[in-house]
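Below is a filled-in request sheet from our internal design queue. Each sheet records the structural input a requester submitted and the sequence that came back. We keep these sheets so that new team members can see what a complete request looks like end to end.

REQUESTER: design group, bay 2
PRIORITY: normal
MODE: inverse folding
CHAIN LENGTH: 230
BACKBONE (tokenized):
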């Protein structure tokens, strides 16, 4: 068994504990990944080690998505060695636009590229209009895993299945500001005027979008995996 360890906090003591348990540390080809920090540490680890089972250890009480505390490491390692655990899977989203292909565990966000202009766009679900000619600060497309993050901050409600679409501060808009589409759906956002930007998870890179560009999103083939002790 081989384990990689990542995190936003010092995890040298976790490295020592893993080695004392007789488990190899391997940053290149691990069987499991321990993430130590907060919710952002999970997103970073998934981008670095996609679909490799994660053991999420919180460094503070604010890390709601992390399943374990630092004091649990010894028990976790014993359970891993005994095979006494199960794998929980979460869907991810992939986005395609202008020759780019991205994958997100939490969400994709589209916003205006200018702080003085709103974003003008339409949203389609399986090519059928869902939100038409919206003027707002943007739109968030989220997975169930990400539905308790920024998606909920802009007014979406947490959900367990599907793909959530939430409008961010829409102008002069009547009707529901968020909907949940079937997880097999293709979600398309078309920019109508000016430019926009696309961001995903906690990735620092921002992607520029031109007027008339469209971003197509759907469930990714690969899923994120998390270790739950039996």
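RETURNED SEQUENCE:
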């Amino acid at each position: 068994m081989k384990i990689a360890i990542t995190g936003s906090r010092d995890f040298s003591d976790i490295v020592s504990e893993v080695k004392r348990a007789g488990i190899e540390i391997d940053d290149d080809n691990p069987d499991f990944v321990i993430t130590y920090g907060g919710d952002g540490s999970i997103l970073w680890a998934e981008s670095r080690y996609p679909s490799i089972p994660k053991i999420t250890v919180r460094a503070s009480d604010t890390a709601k998505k992390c399943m374990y505390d630092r004091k649990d490491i010894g028990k976790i390692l014993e359970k891993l060695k005994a095979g006494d655990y199960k794998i929980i899977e979460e869907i991810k989203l992939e986005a395609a636009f202008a020759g780019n292909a991205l994958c997100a565990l939490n969400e994709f966000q589209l916003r205006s590229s200018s702080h003085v202009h709103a974003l003008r766009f339409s949203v389609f679900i399986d090519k059928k209009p869902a939100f038409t000619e919206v003027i707002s600060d943007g739109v968030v497309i989220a997975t169930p895993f990400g539905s308790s993050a920024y998606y909920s901050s802009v007014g979406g409600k947490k959900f367990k299945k599907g793909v959530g679409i939430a409008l961010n501060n829409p102008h002069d808009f009547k009707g529901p500001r968020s909907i949940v589409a079937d997880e097999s759906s293709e979600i398309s956002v078309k920019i109508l005027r000016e430019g926009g930007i696309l961001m995903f998870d906690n990735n620092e890179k921002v992607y520029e979008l031109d007027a008339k560009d469209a971003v197509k999103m759907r469930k990714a083939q690969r899923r994120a995996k998390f270790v739950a002790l039996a």
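SHEET NOTES:
- Residues 93-221 form a domain with the Tumour Suppressor Smad4 fold (CATH 2.60.200.30).
- Helices lie at 12-20, 39-48, 73-82, 150-153.
FILED BY: M.R.
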